[in-house]
Amino acid sequence: MSEPSESSPAARRRRGRRIFGIGAILLSVPIILWMGAALFVARSLMYPEFLRHSGHDIFGQHVPAFQRGSMTDIGAALGVEPERLDCGVVEEDGIRHRKVSVVGWYFPGKRREVVVILPSAAVPETAMIPYAKFLLGAGYTVVAGYSANNPSYGISWGMLKRKFALATARTLKDDGFDKIAVLGISEGAAGAVMAQAEHQVFTAIIADSSYANLAQLFMRSPSISRLNPAFAGTVMWEAQLWFGRPLYKISPEIDAGNLGTCSLLIIQNRNDKVTPVADGKALLASAGFNAQMWTVPSAGHGDAIFEDPKGYAARVIRFLDASFDIERPAAKPQGH
């Protein structure tokens, strides 16, 4: 049987299919490269530049050079021997589904009211000493959360810390502690607000340097704002694969309106470029009458306790005492 000529209908159909196939390949290659590059950039949002350089996300004029140390060293610095507090296992959001053990360090205080410290991203254990010191000095029991605080894990911008907060609260309640507050710094602050909106288990929250909305935070960062707008939009869309939900829905600002009876102290630095004062005001407006805000004269991020240690401790203790209905005896005048 002879082959159909090039001018036959069958040959023309084959030629049309080849042209269509070649065109589809030529069109799909740049789309695949575009989407692949966007996925790579989206993943990098969990490994921002500050983690590669400083190893953590706390910076400011008076922030010390943090040194890693054992819990024995920290116990010696605080004068209280810590106990390990195992709070189960949680699963990371997004496509990784990594299992993470929730471990805290329990420092017994004179009071049954507990303050859980949710640190910023990747800081070493010693960074929690100044917070635990003044809280223990005021009689509070302290649990310092330290799970997955390693630069190699990246940063989930509070999504994982919210699960740490809830797991820790469940363990403490099972142990008979009913009055629990959270002091969160940076991503820990965002995680605390998100946790309370999910399950109302806390009496009070101190949110130190929280962002208002994750999508807005990324869009104002140089790494995203300098991109082609269409490509930046693709990055933000693909980022939900890593974070487990659309970024615009990761919003402590919205969650601050769903805290129930929990009181909220917002601490924000006046010239913070990462989480500006506007972010704190957004949380304040959403939370309403049961919230207050303290603005610290600093251009750093999460460094308020190092900028004004005495003022920070006094402000936080006054807020916690009011939230827990604790009355302390008035200070005696000097000379009496």
Q: What's the short story on this structure?
A:
This protein is of the alpha/beta class. It has 13 helices and 8 strands. The longest helix has 36 residues, at 9-44.
Count, helices: 13
Stretches where pLDDT is under 50 for at least 5 consecutive residues are none
Shape: elongated
End-to-end C-alpha gap: 120 Å
Characterization of the model:
This protein has helices at about 10-45, 50-55, 70-80, 130-135, 160-175, 185-200, 215-220, 220-225, 230-245, 250-255, 275-285, 305, 310-325, and strands at about 85-90, 100-105, 115-120, 140-145, 180-185, 205-210, 265-270, 290-295. The chain has about 325 residues and is an alpha/beta fold. The chain folds into 2 domains: about 1-45 and about 215-245, no CATH class; about 60-215 and about 250-325, Alpha/Beta hydrolase fold, catalytic domain (Rossmann fold, 3-Layer(aba) Sandwich). Helix 1 (about 10-45) packs across helix 9 and helix 5 crosses helix 6 (about 185-200). The longest helix has about 35 residues, at about 10-45. The chain is elongated and about 105 Å long.
